[in-house]
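Re-run with default settings, no changes from the original entry. Doing this only to confirm the output is reproducible before filing.
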Amino acid sequence: MNRHLPTQPRIAVIGGGTGLSTMLRGLKRYSSRITAIVTVADDGGGSGVLREELGMLPPGDIRNCICALANTEPTMDQLMNYRFTEGRLAGQSLGNLMLAALNDITGSFEEAVNRMSDVLAITGRVLPVSRENVQLEAVFDDGSTVTGQSKIAVEKRRTGRRIDRVRLIPEYPEAIPEALDAIREADLVVIGPGSLYTSIAPNLITKGVAKAIVESTALKVYVLNVMTQPGETDGYSASDHIQALFDLSGEKLFHICLANALPIPAALAEKYAAEGSEPVRVDEETVAKQGVELLHAPVAKIKGDLVRHDPEALARELIWIYRARAETQVYG
């Protein structure tokens, strides 16, 4: 079935952490109609302090996405991400403090995000997935639990237990209507990249999000992480990541998984192994049995002693997949 492809597709991206903002830097070159839907379960670092002291939603992941989509000079980007190193402000970024101030001025976190987005003339928009003040709780394979996004990986590393699932407290908070509308109206929905249980999952277990993804006729792609994450996805293969997302949401959310094909140098792989991380093993036969098509492309880059997604390569590949598939098929 053919359909007219818009010059600038409507793109809804779902996740959090540095993976999401990295991808946004590339995608804004291809469309101005981007909506980033971002987790609000973060309780660590400077965001956690502001959340506890001011009772506001955590600003860190939101700030990263706003900066990624901003059309500003490099100096402004540096300023927004500047982190104080001394005194009572140690650990806080200026962008977080600006969002906190706007939250106080406007009386609404959503409006604070909108005001900062306007000031920085961002491409597209950034939305918190929910207005509710939620906590993330992990349930381990022995039935024990730990509450707090920042505590989950620490507890897993300490005990060696495997995460069985995560849930929000309160359970199933309402997603903001604008986020659900963006998903339903999208031409392309991208899930990830990002921490499986602490960045992506909180969005998918927010009430209405998984249903909106399933109901959307968009092409839906999951961007697989390049490396496993110590304390969260130790030993996970591609199919483990996919199954966890399907189990958590109760839905088959996507039919395409994009995996990195750039080889990781042996010396760098050894360094990561010493830290408890390894390239995510791509078990193609098991993924195929899950009804997911696995696509490979060199979407990572080596920067010093780090492996990260390459914003330009990742965005280029996602847009190529969208254009190639959506010309002939409608995905539901």
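The longest helix spans residues 311-326. Residues 43-128 form one domain.
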